[in-house]
Amino acid sequence: MALADGLVGDSSAGGRPGVAPRFTRVSDADGVPERVALGVSEMLTERPDAHVCVVVRRSKDAKPLAEALADLLPEHDVRHGHNASFQFDPGATVTNMRQIKGLEFDAVFVVEPSEANYSSGDGQAEQGRKWLYTVLTRAKDRLELIGLEPLTGLLSDSVEHGRLEVADEGAVPEVVCGDEDDEPF
Q1: For 78, phi and psi rounded to 5 degrees?
Q2: Cα separation of 166 and 3, whole Å?
Q3: What span, in angstroms and rounded, lies between the C-alpha atoms of 73 and 106?
């Protein structure tokens, strides 16, 4: 809750104890479903009775991601959730952010929390903030954000103030050479 409340400028909530929310930036498009699958698998292995939600911004992106995750996670129940077909059984539901308002899940994985999906720009910031707040407040125990693109500007303050950890899997590690590395072969 501290992350979501920081998004709207309310610092009164302390949140719950547990794993800090994290944004993982992957290096290529294939890395998104792979990283989501890893997180879902970890959660469902730890808690087989958990209901995990994977949230995309647009409805058209949910079904292809659900299919990709089902292929990557054959040992778990992965399904596309939309309107009347929404199930609350253990496993993972992949849906868009409009489907989850008022619901709560053991874990939520937010896909592509980017500027394109949750705009901080003129005239769009308030709507982007509302959508993102709704998504961030659906997780009970674990919240992860995963994407290829940089984070939306709406979360800059949260990163700066430590409410959101950032891991950049696409970053090139710094190479440190010692004196012996400069010697000829």
Answers
A1: -120, 130
A2: 13
A3: 18
For the chain, the straight-line distance linking the first and the last C-alpha, in angstroms and rounded, comes to 56
DSSP 145-185: EEESSPBPGGGHHHHHTTSSEEEETTSPPPP---GGGGS--
Strands (E), 13-136: 22-25, 51-56, 78-80, 91-96, 105-111
Integer Cα distance of 79 and 91 in angstroms:
8
- For helices 31-46 and 59-72, the axis angle rounded to 10 degrees is 60
Is the distance from CB of 153 to CB of 117 less than 8 angstroms? Answer: no
Tell me the pLDDT tens digit for each residue of 7-33: 666 655 555 666 789 999 999 999 999
What is the C-alpha separation between 70 and 141, in angstroms, rounded?
23
How far are the Cα atoms of 16, 75, 163 from residue 30, in angstroms, in the given order?
A: 32, 20, 27
pLDDT of 125-176, one tens digit each?
Answer: 788 888 999 999 999 999 999 999 999 999 998 899 888 999 987 655 555 6
Closest alpha carbon to 131 in 41, 58, 43: 58
